[in-house]
What does this fold into?
Amino acid sequence: MTISGSYTRYTVPSPNATPGSIVAGPDGALWFTELFGNSIGRITTNGIVTEYPVPTLNSEPNGIAVGTDGALWFTEFTGNQIGRITTAGVVTEYPVPSVPQQPDYPNTITTGADGSLWFDGYGKVGQVVFPTATMTVTPESASYHTELAFTGSGFAPNETIRIWESGLGSSILVRGTADASGNFTATARAPSSVYGPRLFLGKGAASYRLGAAGFNATPRLVISPSEGSAGSTALAAGYGFGSLEQVKIYWDNPKQYLGTVTADLDGSFSGTTGLAFTVPAGVAPGSNTVGALGQTTQAKGRGGFNVE
It folds into this structure.
């Protein structure tokens, strides 16, 4: 369409392709998504259309944006992935780190002022980062409050590296200092995280180099107090469950339902949002188990209680 309001229509070659979003590409052409055509389209200002299939079938590519690397980045709504296509038509796909029971359904995407790509999904906002340094965490899978060891390389000599609890700019989990070779180590307790895969991000204060460490958050149930008599009361607190999911709490032996709570955005419930329960009458003295089951993710947590 011209600015005077006249327009010309160009037919997309694939039938029922359902063009979605469109953006001006770095090559002077326009790039668009084909929601049901499962392709990325390119159209010149002369109306010549080229289509590039997305490798994952029925992924429903939707939003599209130009990245700082000169490639086009797009969302795959039902594929639960972020795709990248070069101006030569080479496609690479990156899975969004969410559990299968709670896919993020990435929808629209844009380049932020920080150079990262930002996208929206099912009740979440996601960030695509471009690491320029190396960072790992040990163990790679653990529950809330487990001690974690971070190691990194490729940072500037003697600079401070800040590692955030969640995304860039959130509360700082721990700081480390690089040595003369740009390597660092730091330890911290695992923060409350939603069940499943996530990233820890570390950034150099002087070089702005960015490291990303993959981590898998597992559930944990904490009973307080951890001992008492039958008929006494206790509080069940949980960490590492699904965001906003309902969690059912059970006494393990004999099996008895204690109640249901709703986790917060971080997959946690504690304090006033935890479950206050009465220790069942007639349970065996000694070590007993209390279990928790997330109703969406099926995440399972266990806590101990000693009956006096």
Remarks:
- The chain is about 0% helix and 50% strand.
- The two ends are 79 Å apart (CA to CA).
- The mean pLDDT is 95.
